[in-house]
Write a sequence for this structure.
């Protein structure tokens, strides 16, 4: 499978790590859209949030438990935004589930 985020998890494409554990890898986005812009991904390939099933419940809980740790590591004590884009209309450009963690300034109230 030709998935750039699977290659990043495997270390085949370099990235700047923020946090990692046995389930999750978090790294800085290559084209940041906020002062802090981190991508949080599962180590296993899931195409998008639209492909999550009950079988992924433990993994998803683990990702959302990791996000506050990542926010703390990044000094986002004043808040942040978590976004996942899905499919064509959601403008998902990488088809490996990922959560954008954005912060470091007051973000725009709406995204649309
Ligand atoms: P999406 O548009 O799918 O929601 O988000 C994909 C994100 O991945 C974009 O913000 C893009 O900048 C980031 N990205 C794409 N390729 C790479 C890469 O090779 N390395 C890193 N660190 N980020 C990437
Ligand atoms: Zn993948």
């Amino acid at each position: 499978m030709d998935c750039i985020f699977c290659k990043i998890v495997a270390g085949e494409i370099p990235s700047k790590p923020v946090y990692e554990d046995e389930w999750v890898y978090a790294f800085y986005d290559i084209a940041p859209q906020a002062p802090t812009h981190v991508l949080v991904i599962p180590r296993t390939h899931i195409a998008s949030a639209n492909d999550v099933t009950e079988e992924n419940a433990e993994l998803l809980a683990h990702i959302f438990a990791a996000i506050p740790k990542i926010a703390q590591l990044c000094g986002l004590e004043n808040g942040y935004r978590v976004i996942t884009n899905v499919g064509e209309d959601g403008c998902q450009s990488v088809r490996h589930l990922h959560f954008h963690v954005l912060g470091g300034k007051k973000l725009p109230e709406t995204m649309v």
Summary: Helices lie at 4-9, 57-73. The longest strand covers residues 36-42. The CA atoms of residues 47 and 96 lie 4 Å apart.
